[in-house]
């Protein structure tokens, strides 16, 4: 019976065959322990010299790291194993022998591991991070489908910048200028006017020359937009969504979190509702904590966000930022023109902003004036203005950065480990 490691619980006491790679091994004179992986998980294969043919034990002693195999054996429960099962090996068939695998059990530097990212992904730690990433994606689709959202795919090549910044990757689109998308938001607003509640999930690009542990050049965003949703409605969806993915990661990735040494007691506290603090109050809090150099109208950096987050044991919304700090499309506060109806959701433990969202401007004249104030060409955004001309409604949305969320939930320090092949300021290989 051929099966996978993830399915061995169904075959306790039975002999099965698994296609696997040798992740590592140790042996004595009479017994060999094979660490096997097949993509679905890791399991230990135990080869006892007295219980197998001489050729089988000889293979067990000589096979090299990352050699591919068909391993046959009896599945048994094992309380000492984090996985809960092991295999009593009865047969080994070598498919392809790996020679001089470069990533050995010794310590390797980060640059070496990044140069060998295509192989580093095979390690138990990286496997665990990718499984958590996959669970967040799976839970994302479940949440939005359950809530009646429609998946819409915005274009990756655009003719303008959603946030009016210069941090764009430029390319030629035949005779026109084009840019790699930094957000699908504007297109999702158009989709919301057609379909009510929509979400996108796709790659975005920022030509930002940053080397911090929170930044990638190419990253993935989940971007919902909702017609007839105002500021408070928007925050409620964000809370429910984040709480949902945390719950699913805890339930479905317990083994992976254990492999990574994640303190899950912290994640178990992350239930909605989440605390809120206005920009004004956050600024006062920072001044009390000794950040005297920051003034009203300044944006918060990583140290500021961390200091604010440490005041709480849950993610915290920082709301109502100054208008001058935010993109042109954000709805102003009804009683204060100097602030907008927006919020950033800051993750605890120093992981920073994972969500940025706002109510969007729905008045055509106000939108036009904001476009002009930001020095943008109104003709470029004519289609976006059309959304306000033909049946405009209050609407809101947000964007969640997948990689920062993966880093937070898995507890890894740097976002480069949270995407299969990271694109960094000085890295385009492999």
- Assigned CATH architecture of the largest domain: 2-Layer Sandwich
Report the top-level CATH class of the largest domain: Alpha Beta
- What name is given to the CATH topology of the largest domain? BirA Bifunctional Protein, domain 2
Number of domains: 2
Number of strands: 17
Please identify the structural class as seen in this structure. alpha+beta
SSE arrangement, N to C: EEEEHEEHHHEEEEHEEHHHEHHEEEHHEH
Task: Measure the end-to-end span.
Answer: 37 Å
Number of helices: 13
Profile the largest sheet: 8 strands, mixed
Describe this structure in words.
One of its GO terms (cellular component) is cytoplasm. Residues 130-430 form the Aminoacyl-transfer RNA synthetases class-II family profile domain. There is one protein chain. The chain is an alpha+beta fold. The chain is 30% helix and 26% strand. The chain contains 13 helices and 17 strands. The strands form three sheets. The protein has an eight-stranded mixed sheet. Helix 4 (124-146) packs across helix 6. 36% of the residues are buried.
Summarize the structure.
Pfam families: tRNA-synt_2, tRNA_anti-codon. With 430 residues, the chain is of the alpha+beta class.
Chart the SSEs and their pairings.
Layout: E1 2-3, E2 15-27, E3 31-37, E4 42-48, H1 54-62, E5 68-77, E6 85-96, H2 110-115, H3 117-120, H4 124-146, E7 150-151, E8 157-158, E9 170-173, E10 176-180, H5 185-195, E11 197-205, E12 218-227, H6 231-252, H7 254-259, H8 264-268, E13 276-278, H9 279-288, H10 302-309, E14 316-319, E15 342-347, E16 352-360, H11 364-373, H12 382-389, E17 395-401, H13 402-410
Parallel strand pairs: 1-2, 4-6, 7-11, 13-14
Antiparallel strand pairs: 2-3, 2-5, 3-4, 5-6, 8-10, 9-10, 11-12, 12-17, 14-15, 15-16, 16-17
Helix pairs in contact: 4-6, 4-13
